[in-house]
């Protein structure tokens, strides 16, 4: 018997497009499901060193929620590489200005920190409202349902 091994050449042709509605979803739980699809861990032909994942469109990012006290305490930090250049922005302010950036950062934090992870992150499209459905209508995205584990935790 021979073991099936995915070819790196044909992976891009077989990618599916999924759409996820973030309205009312918890940011962290949503990000874990999206990261699983981007890496391809939801497929039987998953290979750790190949990009076997699919493309994901997240719509209504403005309506996603944080649970607990994260809305008040969570802070995003970055450095400008100048002396004294540490900048901070609270998650509440970031959500008001760029709600799509909050989802992107949550998902990117769950992907590998290498060249493969950056390639996976390029397959993620996040929109603050329903604009993504119209913009990506040609890809015919399928709605992505949350896994049974995430649905059970939500209930």
Describe the protein's architecture and organization.
It is a single chain. This protein has 155 residues and is an alpha/beta fold. It has one domain: Ribosomal protein L13 (Ribosomal Protein L13p, Chain: A, Alpha-Beta Complex), CATH 3.90.1180. It contains 7 helices and 6 strands. The chain has helices at residues 27-39, 70-73, 91-97, 99-108, 115-121, 131-135, 148-154; strands at 17-21, 55-59, 75-79, 86-90, 124-126, 142-143. It has a 4-stranded parallel β-sheet. It has a two-stranded antiparallel sheet with strand order 3-4. The radius of gyration is 17 Å and the shape is globular. The model has no long low-confidence stretch (mean pLDDT 91).
| Sequence of strands across the biggest β-sheet | 5-2-1-6
Q: For the residues shown, what is the average pLDDT?
A: 91
Q: Tally the helices.
A: 7
Q: What proportion of the residues form beta strands (DSSP E)?
A: 15-25%
Q: What do we call the CATH topology?
A: Ribosomal Protein L13p, Chain: A
Poorly predicted regions are none
In total, how many domains does the architecture comprise? Answer: 1
Return the structural class: alpha/beta
Known CATH architecture: Alpha-Beta Complex
